[in-house]
Amino acid sequence: MDSIKQKIDQLAKALGKSNVPDTYTDYKETRAQYERLANEDVKKLQQESKLRRIQEIHGRSDLNPKWTFQTLVEDSDDVIEAVSIAQSFIAAHDDPSWRSSGSHMMIFYGDYGRGKSHIAGAIAHQLIDQYEISVLYRQLSSLLEMRFFSYDYNATDNVAEQFREIQKELLDVDLLILDEVCVNESMLKKNTQSWLGNLLRQRLVNNKNCIMITNHNLAELENALGKYCFESIKEYDTYKVKFSGPSRRKEIVPQAPEAMNVSSGYQPNQVK
């Protein structure tokens, strides 16, 4: 009995197509090839989708794009130690049980220009890129100003609606970075203490993490935030990082006294 292949060859000759290549494709091999191509397409689409999600998170975070570990100068012991703690915090996100076990608070404190905001931003950028963690960076003073103006019910600039939207983001975002906490403030007003304390407590319940950046020392910070708000912070798994190294910002006023410029030209209102 002729095989199927022989019958196909005979039919090809009868139709004048005897030059058909003498090849035979295995079904399993063809199927495996198509599956490989399909998997590659799916993987490519997933990578493109992940990139879009990461770009969207970066866009909503309001982070300075220059705040990365690559641009950070580790020129003092406090910065080196802070980077080590930051990397441990980031690495902990590999453990799902750690991420779901509680809320974590990092307090960066020290004088101006010591790199506090830079390292906080570097942590945020890496968490976004590596784990797609949602991040929101805000200066506390700007939030309080918006909160204050949101009570103007005669306003036509929709500030109240904008603040409600931001308030929802403050509660929902995975990592909230609050910068300039109590800047130029020895003590927040009582209603502000309550608002911030409630915000931190609600985030605590939902296992959301925070980074708080301040120029106060810890004792001054406790006084400035008030007991209710500071008790909210104590409920978190807290990491306290002190920045005491030199300022990284450029000097505008020179350290040495400047010589006075004495002009010998015309000076108005001279009394002869």
From TrEMBL:
Xref: Pfam families: Bac_DnaA (PF00308)
Q: Please, which domain of life does this record's source organism belong to? A: Bacteria
Chromosomal replication initiator protein DnaA ATPAse domain: from which residue to which, for each copy? 63-221
Biological process terms in GO annotation: DNA replication
SUPFAM superfamilies (alphabetical): P-loop containing nucleoside triphosphate hydrolases (SSF52540)
Return the PANTHER family for the record. ATP-BINDING PROTEIN RV3427C IN INSERTION SEQUENCE-RELATED, CHROMOSOMAL REPLICATION INITIATOR PROTEIN DNAA
This one is known as: DNA replication protein DnaC
